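Handoff note, outgoing to incoming analyst
You'll be picking up this chain. Sequence as last confirmed:
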Amino acid sequence: MTALATSSPSETGLEISTEDTLLRVRNLCKHFPVFSRGFIKKQIATIRAVDQVSFDLKRGETLGLVGESGSGKTTCARTILRALQPTEGEVLFRANGKTIDLSKTPERDLKPLRTKMQMIFQDPFSSLNPRMTVGEIVGEPLTIHRLAKGSEWEERIVEMLRRVGLKPEHRQRYPHAFSGGQRQRIGIARALIMRPSLVIADEAVSALDVSVQAQVINLLKDLQNELNLTYIFVAHDLSVVRHVCDRVAVMYAGKIVEIAPTLELFDEPKHPYTKALISAIPSPDPDIKLDFSIGGEVADPGNLPGGCSFHPRCPECFAPCKTEVPELIRLEKNRQTACHLYTP
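Most recent structure output, in case you need it:
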């Protein structure tokens, strides 16, 4: 892709053409160098945690980012938000009527954009400062960005606590006084207090009991409708993803291997890895046996096999899989997959 013409450090000449598109990720990479030990440091390997990831995200949509542990989904999410500096690629974000390339925006220009994009973390306890009251935790973003103070600051905290199902008097208490589900509600309130347009939920319900998971998921869906939020939902539990997401992107060894509308993906998965993930979902019927299983571990991103990274574990592997890297191709209007089984 040719270099972007920029009018300022944070704006890009490549516009998002449609108003309903909030985010456009193109060829995103996050690589970590590995150095030798000793006095003289020498790079001996590269960990390709995220490698050539591309997708679009519409306003009001929920995109699931799924895969086994080590597949690169959390690193991808953090790189999109610029918690990690991208190695390559573009992250085009629509904010304040402008298309901004987050991957090339200087650190000093990122602060005002933080109000537009937030993250809900996996652990609802360690992500909250135990020395701060709930009111201070939820209101801290307003203070940092100077968006409210005094009575307005207090009113916005009370309003957000009510929205997430907590009582106004809870703002005087500390995180240790709450259950896991309540702590996650506090984390959600903190993320949404500035009314962002993009929210990344990083395994936001995986640390909760099943009954509490359902409550938090329903809360997130209600808040999405009320506040016009757009979600990227990072998860490994596909049963949760099926209930929450409009589309699902399946990641393996740093790459997206399949992306499709949720119902289509679950009803007719294309990539062998997707088939294996769906087959691993527990069935309420004990007589139903897994019909597509895989062994082994996720490929080492620092020492990937040749060809398709999944081929050592793939039951449908054939000759091209061992030597040629498959491209993410479009099968139908809303479906893409990276597999030699579908290469023309």
